[in-house]
Amino acid sequence: QLYRDARECLTLLSQRLGSQKFFFGDSPASLDAFVFSRLAPLLKAKLPNGKLQQHLKSLQNLCNYCTSILSLYFPWDGGETRPQPHPVGSGAPRAAGADGGEAEEDPHKRRNQLLSMLVGLVAMLGYAFLSGIVSIQRGGGGGVRPAGRQPIALEEEEEEE
């Protein structure tokens, strides 16, 4: 059922986008950022079960939409233009291939992974706080507390036992 709903959602997004560059015309809006943040990992990641990914790849306008945003805003990651390799002897990390050729290795891969994890953690915590799943209550005096949440003083606790 979950896969069917996800496939239907992708199909509806494809129909809504149509042949436009972005969902609301020629310039991106917050909806574009939200949709791209969901579609790009689905399109680019290696997944154990690729049914949903294959469906997305069959929706050519959504693939073009992701590729367009990647090349426009992340040219070093998804577009055709790649950063030029560092000159030999500049201390840039390189990996030698098995055939003796040099393969370019991302020197900032670890940093990017950590930043991605940090952004994800902040997003999850922000959602938890904003949705009320997690809340911070300050201790201290004078504040009105909801019924049933009165702190128990140490003496009262000992008397109850």
TrEMBL record:
Highest taxon above the source species: Eukaryota
Any one Gene Ontology BP term: mitochondrion organization
Domain Metaxin glutathione S-transferase: 6-69
Positions of transmembrane segments: 114-136
Tagged with keyword Nucleotidyltransferase: no
Keyword entries, A-Z: Membrane, Transmembrane, Transmembrane helix
Keyword check for Transmembrane helix: yes
One Pfam family in the UniProt entry: GST_C_6
InterPro entries cross-referenced by the UniProt entry: Glutathione-S-Trfase_C_sf, Metaxin_GST, Mito_Protein_Transport_Metaxin
One Gene Ontology cellular component annotation held by this UniProt entry: SAM complex
Ranges where the record places region Disordered: 81-107, 138-161
The protein's name in its UniProt record: MTX1 protein
Organism: Rhynochetos jubatus
Gene name in the database record: Mtx1
